[in-house]
Amino acid sequence: MKSSVVNQLKTVALLGAMTALLVVIGGALAPGYLWLFGAIAVVMNLVSYFFSDRIVLAMNRAHPIGPGDDPQLERMVAELAARANIPVPRIYVVEDDAPNAFATGRNPAHGVVAVTTGIRRLLSERELRGVIAHELAHIKNRDILVASIAAMIASVVSFVATAIQWGAIFGGSRDDRDASPGGAIGALALAIVAPIAATIIQLAISRSREYLADATGARLADDPLALASALAKLERGNARIPLHTVGDSPATASLFICAPLSGGSVASWFSTHPPMAERIRRLEELAGSYSPAPRPARRVSLSSRA
Predict the structure, then answer these.
(1) Of all helices (H) and strands (E), which one includes residue 238?
(2) Of 79, 125, 135, 235, which is the active-site residue?
(3) Is the separation of the CB atoms in 194 and 161 below 8 Å?
(4) Cβ atoms 130, 227 nearer than 8 A
């Protein structure tokens, strides 16, 4: 419970930081221009918010399963949705050997859970249940809404920064030409740095929501070690067989429970997902708080055999 509250507070803080960044860069351009770029970004992200599920499903060539096509998966989704107190989401399948899954939908009433054929072959029923619980946690926590807000703010920052850069290229307004060279250089530097900072904050929000979905999903399934074991297998499985529709683009990778490998150190700043080892460590720590544990406790290692 404590980790869930921390992650919620972290999301609020990060959104606040991104909003502050928007105000700073908007002031650098002038308030008169900010409303225009803000309106454009709002329209773009509203379209993305309302139609993202269709776009994502089409991009991944996902198809819905019919009643009775996969009784085990259907029962699993229905049971966990009831535990999460949300409507039963639609279930889609992606014909791909890479083991992965994602959730989409702008709210619980429009929720969608998609799994690849690869994940159905790789995971045990217990592990798959942990993964489905994680995806339903994204729907329950309204992470699509949070991601849309973050994307909207980041888009406005990028639009305003682009306007400043073009203004610098073409000489800007008369007032700008009368201003000191140092001020113009400072505004241009801000225009370059601000979008990078906004992207880093946006991706940090994505990582924070992944931690929250892990914790929420583990509690929904009442089995943190099942999700930990599944994550270890998925990490190794995706290293062997990357999902062909994802690549390294944050726009699509952020949706999946296991993103393409993104490296460490500075590269981790631009990762949509937290380090897998840290996710597993937190789940193992969460399992230790269960008394009695629903399953025999065992350590999960990324280097263990699948």
Answers:
(1) helix 224-240
(2) 135
(3) yes
(4) yes
DSSP 112: E
Checking DSSP bridges between strand 90-94 and strand 101-104, what pairing results, if any?
Answer: unpaired
Of all residues in the chain, the percent with pLDDT exceeding 90 is 37
Nearby residues of 213 by Cβ (< 8 Å), 6 or more positions away: 134, 135, 137, 138, 141, 143
φ and ψ of 116, to 5 deg: -90, 160
Q: Could you tell me which residues come within 8 angstroms of residue 296 by beta carbon, excluding any fewer than 6 positions away?
A: none
Query: Is the bond into 292 cis (omega within 30 degrees of 0)?
Result: yes
Whether the pLDDT of residue 99 is over 90: the answer is yes
Query: What are the pLDDT digits (tens) for 191-216?
Result: 677 777 777 777 777 888 899 999 99
Q: Provide the pLDDT confidence category of residue 178 given band limits of 50, 70 and 90.
A: very low
Distance, in Å, from the CA atom of 297 to the CA atom of 306, rounded to the nearest integer, reads: 17
pTM recorded for the entire structure: 0.73
Residue type at 227 in one-letter notation: L
Alpha-carbon span 254 to 37, nearest angstrom: 25
Question: How many Cα neighbours within 13 Å face the side chain of 232?
Answer: 23
Report percent pLDDT > 70 for the chain.
59
210, 273 Cβ separation under 8 angstroms: yes
Alpha helices in 31-180 (DSSP H): 31-59, 71-84, 117-122, 125-140, 143-169, 174-178
210 is catalytic: no
Task: Tell which wins on pLDDT, 46 or 123.
Answer: 123
Is the separation of the CB atoms in 258 and 234 below 8 Å?
A: yes
With a CB cutoff of 8 Å and minimum separation 6, the contacts of 160 are: 22, 25, 26, 28, 29, 33, 34, 37, 191, 194
Q: Are 80 and 132 in contact (CB under 8 A)?
A: yes
What is the pLDDT confidence band of residue 269, given thresholds at 50, 70 and 90?
A: low
